[in-house]
Amino acid sequence: DKVAKKRTVFKVETIGDCYVAVTGLPDPQKDHAMRMVKFAHECRKKFQDLVEQMKATFGEDTGHLAMRFGLHSGPVTAGVLRGQKTRFQLFGDTVNTASRMESTGIRNRIHA
Questions:
Q1: 91: which of 1, 22, 56, 78 lies 20 to 30 Å off by Cα?
Q2: What are phi and psi for residue 35, nearest 5 degrees?
Q3: Does pTM top 0.90 for this prediction?
Q4: With left for phi above 0 and alpha for psi between -120 and 50, is residue 55 left, alpha or beta?
């Protein structure tokens, strides 16, 4: 969340182990794609540093931890879902494509 704030990336939600974030909403940003790539790159670097610290502390078994990133640019439909906790959610092919890129991607890579 700290990296998202620094990079002006809006965290939409966390679904399981998936961090859903967006740039360019609600106000369009010409550099939205670059902001997201820099966000993903910084997250990957911080995660790799954390894994190295964990290996040193807990042993080599923690070295298998990995992240995958799926980035896609395009139109989305946004909505506010109400229930026990009101939340913002994104829908559409752009979101589905990014999700598939992440879920089928190569470990520790940013797929755009």
A1: 1
A2: -60, -45
A3: no
A4: alpha
